[in-house]
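Section 5.1 Outputs to date
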Amino acid sequence: MSIRLFRMYVKVPVVLLALIEGSLLFFAPYFAAALRFNGDVPNWATPSEGLHFTAGIFALASLVSLFAVGLYSTRQRSNAAGILVRVIAAISTAVMFSALVYFFLPDVAMGRGLLGLTALVAVGECFIVRILFDRIVDENIFKRRVLVYGAGRRAASLLELRRRSDTRGFRLVAFIAAEGDAVTPAAAERLTPRPDDLFRWCVDNQVDEIVVAMDDRRRSFPMHEFLECRLAGIDILELPSFLERETGKVRLDVLNPSWIIFGEGFRASPFQRALERGFDVLASLGLLVLALPLMLLAVIAIRLEDGWNAPVLYRQRRVGRYSEPFDVLKFRSMSVDAEKGEAVWAVKNDPRVTTVGGIIRKTRIDELPQLINVLRGDMSFVGPRP
């Protein structure tokens, strides 16, 4: 069941979970004070006295952080370990924000020791609540209920998903055969007759999302019914987009050429490009500083093995964005004349690989000079392989 908040449809269990966690996060400083003072809590740390504003800041920052890392999203697919990592990241962010607020408002600040203990209490509360909530309320509360419009070859690809991580985020409610579909045996087991009122059927069956998997859209495409569902907050997705989101892969066997042209992945605003470049510069600089001792050791090891005049770096021509060529940098892991004449693909136990080269290849230390490529703008941390 869903309710509408600020023009968005939110599941009632998610709202209930947020209310429970918000209450526990508010009282986390009081629990931490009780632990720190062995139950002999001073007056300023009791619920009847002055921690209200302090606790409220921490609780609000924690809720916003939990929302920011996707823990209130019905699309989150994390298992218990993934949830714990996200909770730790969210509470750590909330601690930093709270500490900043307390710095400017010292009258409502809590001490560093109490803030650290509060963070530990908050992580434990959120993690335990989520595990219990998942078991007691409904193990599928964070799964989207998906209706597949289509029951032919394309729709059957959804039933081919075998990995648990690929199906963790959704639950198939039913398949509805579209005109022209050759119903597959796999889809026939979950086939439901086409309802007279698709929107009402989706509401009655609590459908969150409709995946359009018709084999032939040129036939009867239910435009008005899909529009009615969309306006009511039910998401409508194409099959390739749904599979990409859930599996992290693009299924070429169900892909339409138009999907590539209109896909979201190619859209980038100037702000997004500036943000990406800023991340590349900061990340590459930070990693270069951290990796510098390791890189110096690699340089010394290569020189000791092949002589002080031997080249340390290996340059290979690659093609980057807008078809611009550049030289990708690596630490040399083969003998100096390894590609004399013409380049040859490396093979297992390649005799051209040096002793030091074998070590830096296995540990991927040979790839570290590519941080310079990222810093120069030849490459990006996120993007297609050059």
